[in-house]
Batch of 2 targets.
Target 1
Amino acid sequence: MKAEILPASEAMERALALLRAGDVVAIPTETVYGLAGDATNGLAVAKIFEAKGRPRFNPLIAHVASLEMAQRVGRFDPLSRKLAETFWPGPLTLVLPLQPDTDIHPLVTAGLDTIALRMPRGFGAALIGRLGRPLAAPSANSSGRISPTSAQAVQSDLGGKIRLIVDAGSTAVGLESTIVKVGQDSLRLLRPGGVPAGEIEAAAGMPLERGGGDGIQAPGMMASHYAPGAAVRLNARSVGKGEALLAFGPDRAKGWEEAVAIRNLSPAGDLREAAANLFSFLRELDDSGASSIAVEPVPVDGLGEAINDRLTRAAAPRDKLPAPD
Ligand code: TXA
Ligand code: MG
């Protein structure tokens, strides 16, 4: 069974009807496609976990349409307000203390006393505005697989489990949001993403803390994730027999002519272009039937940090922990 795919220009009323009835809908955001449900409806949120095969200890991001809506759910201090005003709508998720009297269903936060909040651009924002309630939405992929950047990618992964996919073409950013946890006079980077860390540090006027921390900060950030079927080999300077090549920039790895298939993230070496292409090219190379995907080095500055983070997870051994989302 397949899901219905409707262009964003025609999908609003149908999406609203499904959400109001407690169903889930795959929607475009500027980062990746999300699998959305009413964040105040426990049954809707449970359907999200079920469709993805996602463990329930892994909390979801609540998407909002305004700062007012966000403030009803999370407790903002001057620093978090500044970050929201600077980067929203956009690919930044803030983890904040949960308001005590919110109607967000506890499944969304997995029972934590914090909540991840983000204001997306485009269709998602309009939809949340019409619904008048936050939407819980993880990336619209089966747990542990590559995040979808097109309606077709959602269809081929979750199409049999959901009723509607709203199609707005390829997502502009191509990587999930950057997740920052706001503490008292501190900021911790939980997941690099669509807003480069340096831009957040500049706006906040303070450095982002990284790594370590007290326990699992972003439960979804486990080693094996974004896993294609093929093995992934990083920082490849040459292409082996039977390998596909994920290239970057103008210079090719040795033996590239023998690659089973090639995609270049950005021939000009532009990290923004590379981020937008990353997940769809990984899927395409995986579909080429190659046993392994060799990946040329990608610089780690700016958006390169998030690109390398996702590539490292795609390359991680698969037999460790079950990948949670
Ligand atoms: O760009 C994005 O962020 C996309 C689009 C759809 O908005 N969403 C997305 O959601 O990537 P998801 O569920 O795939 O990743 C959300 C991450 C998970 O790693 C989860 O563990 C973490 O956010 N998270 C959610 N709530 C949290 C909390 N209260 N504290 C720490 N981490 C949290
Ligand atoms: Mg995800």
Note: Residues 320-324 have pLDDT under 50 and may be disordered.
Target 2
Amino acid sequence: MRLAVFASGGGSNFQSIVDAAESGALKAHVVLCVSNNPAAGVLERAKKHDISVSILNPSEYENQKEYASLLLAKLSEHKIEFVALAGYMKMIPAEIVHEYSGRIVNIHPALLPAFGGPGMYGLRVHRAVLEAGASESGATVHLVDEGYDSGPIVLQETVPILPGDTPESLAARVLKLEHQIYPRALALFTDHRIQADGPDVTVHNA
Ligand code: GRF
């Protein structure tokens, strides 16, 4: 499966997906890294693995339709079959969501539908979880629809919240879980063990 990964930051999730693909654990090839941020650490990681990079910042386009068609053209140029968002901080244009319906996922560092939506990213998520007095948190891989963090859930796992946790210590624990579940979630698709019929997702555990 020809995979594009979108990222805006350090790219540790990108790295875990690339590692899983290169080890064969994930039957996919990461052929493109898309970022809005020319200074993103993920770009260095992509270069180290000879993975093509495309830097397209929607904020630089007056005309969002032009941006969307450029992005679509880039994806089809690389014959992309599946898209994974991994710490990507921009909304995905509706044209892309439609074109890749059922073939575009995102990872969120909390137990959606809780603690998701606009503005819920980075340490804010973990701070909100702790302030809510939750006993556990976790990570969620979900299909992307036109909303924010609102598509059907593909895979979700939990981590405990420990006494004395700070947003930083919780973020670190959740990030480690992300690195484990993202490749596994993508493997559900490459191994055809998932059925996404609109809002319903059925996982057939092999
Ligand atoms: C992760 O916490 C992910 O859940 C969120 O953004 C962060 C990305 O981190 N969407 P990295 O760039 O993959 O290290």
Note: The first strand starts at residue 2 and ends at 6.
